Amino acid sequence: MCELLGMSANTPTDICFSFAGLAKRGGKTGPHRDGWGIAFYEEKGCRLFHDPNPSAESELSELVKNYPIKSELVISHIRRANRGKICLANTHPFIRELWGQIWCFAHNGQLKGIKKEPLTFYQPVGTTDSEHAFCWLLDQIRLNFPKRPAKLAKLHQLIRDCCHQLNQKGVFNMIMSDSQHLYVHCGTRLHWITRRAPFGEAKLLDEEIEVDFSRETTPNDIVTIVATQPLTTNETWQKMGKNELQILTKGVFLKND
Predict the structure, then answer these.
(1) Alpha helices (runs of H) in 146-213, residue ranges in sequence order
(2) Which end of the chain, N or C, is less surrounded by CB atoms within 10 Å?
(3) DSSP character for 147?
(4) pTM over 0.85
(5) CA pair distance 152, 94, nearest whole angstrom
(6) Among the options 2, 46, 104, 135, which is catalytic?
(7) Strands, DSSP E only, in 92-158?
(8) How far apart are CA 237 and CA 16, in angstroms?
(9) pLDDT at residue 205 greater than cutoff 80
(10) What is the arrangement of strands in the sheet containing 45-51, beginning at the earlier edge strand?
(11) 115: which strand partners?
(12) Active-site annotation holds for 2
């Protein structure tokens, strides 16, 4: 299985601390040696890093850990290959354009029979079931909404229905963004934590690093981190329910429509 990491914040924030913990699981404290990737949204743009090498050994990973890129939306993934060879084309996260926006997607799990689902507008570049699922999901959105709907509740309900349908094919843990929202679906295992004032100290589980967030933030900051497994030892992470979809914006969970 792969591992996921996502962030939604109300102010541009770097994810160096959390990514340092995740990266160690890519070949050192975990078996996810088959590539990694991370996407940082910057307004309508998306800064994307991919590497088919283990994140625990990657020079590019070291750059990301030490270069404080600030973003309100981040999606990252470390891979343990089960379908599709180890190569750059099969490395998450994947991106596509819809309605003039960059959509970004990362997935953990296997989806039996997903490649039998026909595709209309989007085609995979690699050979993973994950990328096929992403193309199928965007197809469903585009077929139902050729233009971005004025009422987002209808869009969110469609995404929820599609996630439930994909989850019936196996394991569908997903983090996706449309450059405004972070969509998080738990098929089997995802955890989250929201940090806000009063901020305290946090210690990584996989790396000898700790940080005092009170020195790095303002009283108005809100940052929510989503990960397959908790990344810190001294904080209380919340576990998502199975087949649960949550939508975040500016670090805050939207109420279910």
Answers:
(1) 152-167
(2) C
(3) S
(4) yes
(5) 23
(6) 2
(7) 94-98, 101-108
(8) 19
(9) yes
(10) 45-51, 36-42, 71-78, 3-13, 222-227, 191-196, 238-239
(11) none
(12) yes
Domain of residue 81, residue span = 3-253
State the amino acid at position 33 in one-letter form. Answer: R
Q: Which two tokens stand for residue 218?
A: 């303002």
Residue 151 in 3-state DSSP?
Answer: coil
Scan for tokens 């971005």, then name that residue.
148
| Concatenated DSSP letters of 209-255 | -EEEGGGT--TT-EEEEEESS--BSSS-PEEPPTTEEEEEETTEEPP
Which stretches of 53-204 are assigned E, i.e. beta strand? 71-78, 94-98, 101-108, 173-177, 182-186, 191-196, 201-203
Structural contact between residues 224 and 248, judged by C-beta atoms closer than 8 angstroms: yes
Q: What is the DSSP string of 2-37?
A: -EEEEEEEEEEE--HHHHHHHHHTBTTSSB--S-EE
Residue 19's CATH number: 3.60.20.10
**ω before 118 within 30° of 0 (cis)?**
no
Rounded CA separation 7/13 (Å): 9
β-bridge partners, 73? 8
- Number of structural domains (the chain) is 1
pLDDT digits (tens, 9 = 90+) for 149-194: 988 999 999 999 999 999 999 999 999 999 999 999 999 999 999 9
